Amino acid sequence: MNINASLFVQMVVFFLGAWVTMKYIWPPLIRAIENRQKKIAEGLRAADLGQSALAEATKKQQAVEAQARAQAVAIVADGEKRGQNIVEQAKTQAQVEADRIVKAANEEADQEIARAKDALRDQVAQLAVLGAKQILKREVNVETHKALLEELKAKL
């Protein structure tokens, strides 16, 4: 065997293998690598978009949370104001009711005093009649002297 012929055949096989590799094997590998690079690039872009969307969502969530806190504070303050108004109204109504009860009690006391005075006048009139009866030693008729007794009551 000749070394030159062997070298020549090896060179032909090498170039033939290189040509087959470049023609049929290399293009699908390059396409697969390029597709994989595109997918990786898209994944990185999606991750970046996801990060920015997460940051934006976090900002929105914080804004909504702050607004909700402010609203809660406003609702609590409004509730406290309403509670104070209700307490004030209840105090006012209680005062009005107390004044009404005191007025009614005063009126009832005045009526009791008037009744007591009338009863006392009647008793004084009866005592005066009894005294006059004792003095005159005769019976005084209440019906006949009614006008006189009424005048006596009025003076007392």
TrEMBL record:
Keywords: ATP synthesis, Cell membrane, CF(0), Hydrogen ion transport, Ion transport, Membrane, Transmembrane, Transmembrane helix, Transport
Gene3D superfamilies: F1F0 ATP synthase subunit B, membrane domain
Compartments, record wording: Cell membrane; Endomembrane system
Topology term for the membrane: Single-pass membrane protein
Organism superkingdom: Bacteria
TM region positions: 6-26
Keyword Zinc: no
Function recorded in the entry: Component of the F(0) channel, it forms part of the peripheral stalk, linking F(1) to F(0). The b'-subunit is a diverged and duplicated form of b found in plants and photosynthetic bacteria.
Record text on subunit structure and interactions: F-type ATPases have 2 components, F(1) - the catalytic core - and F(0) - the membrane proton channel. F(1) has five subunits: alpha(3), beta(3), gamma(1), delta(1), epsilon(1). F(0) has three main subunits: a(1), b(2) and c(10-14). The alpha and beta chains form an alternating ring which encloses part of the gamma chain. F(1) is attached to F(0) by a central stalk formed by the gamma and epsilon chains, while a peripheral stalk is formed by the delta and b chains. F-type ATPases have 2 components, F(1) - the catalytic core - and F(0) - the membrane proton channel. F(1) has five subunits: alpha(3), beta(3), gamma(1), delta(1), epsilon(1). F(0) has four main subunits: a(1), b(2) and c(10-14). The alpha and beta chains form an alternating ring which encloses part of the gamma chain. F(1) is attached to F(0) by a central stalk formed by the gamma and epsilon chains, while a peripheral stalk is formed by the delta and b chains.
UniProt record similarity statement: Belongs to the ATPase B chain family.
Name of the protein this chain belongs to: ATP synthase subunit b
Originating organism: Mesosutterella porci
Gene from which this protein is expressed: atpF
